[in-house]
Amino acid sequence: MSAIQSSSVPPGAQEYGGDEISALVLDPGYSSVRAGFAGEDIPKSVIPSYYGTVDTPDSSEVKYVFGDNSIHTPLPNLQIHNPISKDGTVEDWDTATKLWEYAITSRLTNFKASNPATNGLNDPAEKNVEAEIEAAGEGEKPLEDNPLLMTETGWNSGKARERSIEVAMESWGCPAFWLARNGVCTSFAAGKASALVVDVGASNISITPVHDGLILKKGVMRSPLAGNFVSQQLRILFSTSNPPIPLTPHYVVTSKTPVDAGAPAIATYRQFTTPPHDSFRRLEEERVLQEFKESVVQVWQGPGRLNSGQQGTTNEEVVKSWPGRPFEMPDGWNQVFGGERFRVSEGMWDAKMALTDAENPAPSQSQTIPALIQASLGAVDVDIRPHLLANVVITGGTSLLYGFTDRLNSELTQMFPGPRVRLSAPGNTAERRFASWIGGSILGSLGAFHQMWVSKKEYDEHGAGIVEKRCK
Amino acid sequence: MSNIISPGSQTTLAQLGLPESFTPAKLRIPTRMFPAEKSGEWEPCKIREIRSKKDKAKAEGLTADGGPPSKKEDVDMLDAGETNGVGSLSNGEPKGEDDEILYEEDPNSEEGAVYPLKEGRITNWPAFLALLTYVHNTLSSPFHTPILIIAQPAWTSHDHELLTQFFFEKFKTPAFCIMDSAMAACYAYGVGTATVIDLGYEKVDITAVSDFVTHEVGRGVAISGYGGETITQTLLELLGTKGWTRDMCEQLKKSNICEVLPQGTPLPGEPQNDTQTITNPAAAASTGATESGPGAPRVTVSDVDMRDDDPITKDGEDNDGVLDVASIVASGKTAEFLARKEREKAERAAAKKAAADTATTATKPARLPNSKKVRNTFWYEERRHAQGDNDTVNENGRRGSEQNGSKLGDDPKSQKTPEPETEAGTASEAKGDATGDTAMAEETEASKRGKEKAARKEEKRRNKQQLLAENPDILRKEIEVGVERFMAANGGILEGIADGIHRTVLAVEEVGFKDALVAVLNSKYLISPSSATIFTSELPSNLSTPLATGANTPQPQLPGMSHSSNVNPLLLAATTASNPALNPAASAISHQHQQHNLHSSHGQTPTSIKLAKIPEYFPEWKDAGFEEASFLGAQVAAKVVFVVDQGISKGFMTRVEYNELGPSGIHECSL
């Protein structure tokens, strides 16, 4: 019966029953964790990767706070951390496990599907439904009934991959597990088996060539010039402008009074006896910056770069003559932003244009998006380059910057005048932000995928190393 | 015909059938169960043991008095709690014992109560299912009745499946459907795009809805620590040092002297600036008396941003019955108001005749609005149990019972509200013969309103009266309180909720939709059944609905308006230039919030925040107020789904589908 299975051969289709297995899909990222049931069109549970800790003075025990509802409350001594490192891989596994568990259990939880044939409908005797339900509600481990599909970055280390399956199998008791590259998931979400995935997230830009559902590891490129970089550019812009622009988060403002554009804010501020930690203020400042990025920042849409141009005038001068966009800070300070709003995003494309200060030196040209794409394509087989260029998939929240796709299109056509370049960028913001989760959701709900799962049995037999062999 | 059940953390609403004109929920019971004698079984009421001959005699008298309905009632309840064979308890005669053991329901006790929902989440499944069974049995629906249940946003998809399984297998319902409470509120208000803020007992839910689709991402689900209870706790913090109990704070909160003053309004006794605190008499009349009688109009909707400027939506309606004629007329509910006043007067007169409290009332500064008084008083009712422990339980401490009475007048607990005044043995205003009068008034009231339940009601009431007679310790005290009563919301609750709204709306995606959402950003403070109910009228609201319905809505006030338009005009002009609809000049009630610079597709928003218009179609609802608007929405939805649509658009799950798909099929049916 239990013949020893080869670790590289997937089990037969019969081992998994119907399509209805309520698989969970978990897509962790630097700024948010997406979780939901496979087959749904949007992750039900999206929580920030940031979490808070509050030191209790009497004991050494640390209280964790997770989720949007809690981490934005200015508690005394609240510190904000992120279990994900700057390069998008997990740094603090213990907390990451807790955080992901929170993401899953707070909104989804497990479910034991009952077979309609045995659900008691045809039993003449009165069955105690309550007791049944009560029993179903008591699981020792959170995910004992749900196969878990998790995504990872293209550059995730082998150790981290093994850790993932350990967490899923040991801590959560998943019956089956799969680890998918988020680049592959994104291309699935766009309905493509081969694509060049441009993922512009919070901490990283990554370029992932995907061919026939597998990533081409040599071609995976990444750089930190993503959302957080733009935020940093904004901070530099605010601090270097004359007079400096105050960056006041919402939580310190009690009320504000309208002031003229550029005039100092007149606001009443909240007093704290024990203020939250600086990291909390930083998180809240990021919220203001995010609002700024969403509502003001713009990418020069091309052609050319911001500092190039025709007839003696640079594009920068052109945009300065365009009407500005107003922004009002939480404390009421407000101003109209003209050319600056293009400047802060230009560093992603042109390293020379990045704003710098003492702590933030200019990035190198090889870190910019056009250079990354060029390097990525240079690393893959020349035959498939045209195919990849015809299937460029854009994802990630930062790619929603106004004018981003136009600029990328213009840069690509300029770099590769010959081949046909076609961008695929969902207009729906949810699809853009959660593309890799959606791809995982599609994958997990495919009937054919059911035989791919790494089962608990296989894990017990082969150990964590099986993930390297099976999940390519 | 269909059942609608709306469980809340404190009160569960339910109704059988859809009348021509929708009315507020017929059945309102506290969401709590008591462990029965046998473990694993539950009772809807605390069952006490009484061991004495005298009690037995009384109980027998009672049974004779009330006749069979009493027994029936008890048996019903016990059945609901899944206890078989305990039905004999109501007779109180266990065989062959010298010491008579009598079991008695104590509807007021909270001792040992289990609240199966906490912050909307289901924390005790057995108790919750027992409660649902009890509700279902109380509705005594015929066998083939579709059921619509209003789901708390905090329920997970797993919970939905368990409930689906439970309803299909336990009640054999032919059709079942789960509706999100935020969606139900949208149905009630008839808006497809809105931000729904549901302020509950211990939590607040903030949901962005666009085109009748809730946005799950970024939804503020059960943000704990913001609710009616928070306000009570804040009061307790302020007043606890002065020897106040939680109950006292709870009642202070519900009394009409507790207000949330607009930001910047000086507290009485402090140096004042004269621009604010002008109260609208109409608002005062229409909202001030929220709990003073059945059918008292209540205000539901209030401003999204509670932090600043609002008109004072109510001022102290003085307890001694001074009538402000202008305000009554302005309120548009003259007849009702007068009727209520009449009643109150009668009661009061009865009390006054014999009582010594005339002095108290006379000394009160009658004309000064509450917000100008440094100190004000309210009536505190305290209830002690003769039997049982010395646990002091206030019968109105839980909001369910209180609303009961003020809404339908069919619940004995609240029916009794005036009685302490007349019966209080220790209080100075005790009055013997007033009891009869009051009871009479109530009886007419009851028969007028709840026809089918009249018999039971009466029985319960008698039961209650007897209980009262046995318990002379119902105290009614007048308690004076200082400016603390204006500080109820100082605990950061307003900031917290506002922040949650901000977050939720920011998380909304879809470029095209967002502009629409913001343009119609209907922000409501829907107060669901909660202890904070009374606060509906006190939540700052300088915005009215576009067409004021009169009594239910705080009237817009000019000082409030001018105070609120504190937007930078330049910014406003710039941001609204492209869309005249956004310009507040076009709409008198629009208003920009400084702290609510939410975001739209590309440009900072909102430039205006509006409240949803209160639906006016159903007179009964208009009278009752809209804290429970989601129940109205559920009625609308039930009508649409079960009657009009008949399952064409898969609004509900049928028996056949359940048999095919199992509980997880519920996710395929959406409302």
Question: In short, what is this structure?
Answer:
Helices cover 32% and strands 17% of the residues of chain A. Chain A is built from 16 helices and 19 strands. Helix content of chain B is 37%, strand content 13%.
Molecular structure report:
The complex is a heterodimer of chains A (472) and B (671). Chain A is of the alpha+beta class. Chain A is 32% helix and 17% strand. In chain A, the strands form five sheets. In chain A, strands 3-2-1-7-8-19 form a six-stranded mixed beta sheet, sandwiched between helices. In chain A, strands 9, 10, 11, 12, 17 and 18 form a six-stranded mixed beta sheet that branches. In chain A, helix 5 packs across helix 14 (435-445). Chain B has 671 residues and is α+β, with helices and mostly antiparallel strands. In chain B, 37% of the residues lie in helices and 13% in strands. Chain B has a six-stranded mixed beta sheet with strand order 3-2-1-10-11-21, sandwiched between helices. In chain B, strands 12, 13, 14, 15 and 18 form a five-stranded mixed beta sheet that branches. Classes of the chains: A alpha+beta (472), B alpha+beta (671). At the A-B interface, helix 3, strand 13, helix 7, strand 15 and helix 13 of A face helix 3, helix 4, strand 15, helix 17 and helix 20 of B.
